[in-house]
Every structure is written in C-alpha cells, then in structure tokens.
Amino acid sequence: MAYAVIQIGGPIYGVGESKAEAIKSAMEWLDPDTKETDISMYMPPVNDGDLVCIECSEGVLKRVNEVGGDIPATILLGLLCLPKIIYVCDECGVEISGEICSEHPDATISSVLAN
User: Fold this and answer.
1) What is the pTM of this model?
2) Distance of CA 75 to the CA centre of its chain
3) pLDDT tens digits for 60-75?
4) Which of 14, 56, 93, 109 lies most in the core, judged by the most C-beta atoms within 10 Å?
C-alpha cells in the first residue's frame, strides 16, 4: 500500500510506502509553519485547499518519484490514481489502442485525459 500527501485541487507534496513516509516526504516541500498535525487523513467531504494524506496507486507512487508531484491525478473511490489516457486519430476521430491509427498511419494522434 502506498500513500500521498496532496492539497485538494493542487499538487502532490509527498509519497511513501507508509503514511509516515508520505508525510515526512511532504514536509520537505510544505511551508515551514506547517505541522504534521495539519495533514488529515482523506475523508470526504473535502474542500479545495485541504491538505490530506490519501492512499494512492503504485502508479502514482512511481510517477511522483520519477518526475515530482506536479502530475495529473484523480481520486476514485478514495484512491489517488493516474487518469486514463485516451488516444484519438485526428484524421478519423476514432479512439485507438496505441499511438498509431491502423487506417491512417501518418495521421497525427491526440491524447486526451479521461477520468
């Protein structure tokens, strides 16, 4: 199980294999006046700006460790997840499974985030 500290409507500040590890990671990036007790466990309803610790997918953990916390993520059933990316052929408008349309191999492909 992995955890993330996020600001609702904002970035991911820290991740870890445990709540304590995620909070420790986040404290490095948060305002120096922020205390660990300012971070609550995720429990709906939440408001934009709330600072919470939430379970996250292994994909989120891996991605944040690779590129940092400014990534798109979505909360599904109490779990912070990476959004699904849909690829669409710009020539025919059809959703495709990869990054090349079999009908139009030279066409530009657009990617769209889908929650």
Assistant:
1) 0.75
2) 8
3) 999 999 999 999 899 9
4) 56
